[in-house]
Amino acid sequence: MAYSESQIRNEALIELNNSARGKLTTTELIELLESRLQPTGKDAEILDGRSDTYFSQKVRNLVSHRNQGTGLSSQDLAIYDSDDESWTITDKGRAKLDQPNLDL
């Protein structure tokens, strides 16, 4: 099963909320999500000319799409700090997790 970017955003919010500090780097998010979701198929394949997988690229898209309406920060669900490449969940992000149909 290939994960959609929407599913990955949902799972990233869960991981941020579960983090003791409410904050994770993109690298930490990738590691946690890969461990928990165990991507297979296309998601587990290495991108041509790269060293990362399709799945890890989707997680990285949370950063690159942050100003395009599809990232966590564009929806005010998390704040990205480019200095340490970390994400911090917002109150709106926590509230989103409390909704019965988590669909970002």
Task: Using the 3D structure, state the CATH architecture.
Answer: Orthogonal Bundle
CATH topology: Arc Repressor Mutant, subunit A
The span between the termini is 19 Å
Q: Strands of the largest sheet, in order across it?
A: 1-3-2
| Number of E-state strands | 3
Total number of helical segments?
4
Shape: globular
Please, what is the average pLDDT?
86
- Domain tally: 1
Q: Level of helix content?
A: 40-55%
Poorly predicted segments? none
What's the CATH H-level superfamily name? Winged helix-like DNA-binding domain superfamily/Winged helix DNA-binding domain
Please outline the major beta sheet: 3 strands, antiparallel
Strand content: 5-15%
- What is the H-and-E element order? HEHHEEH
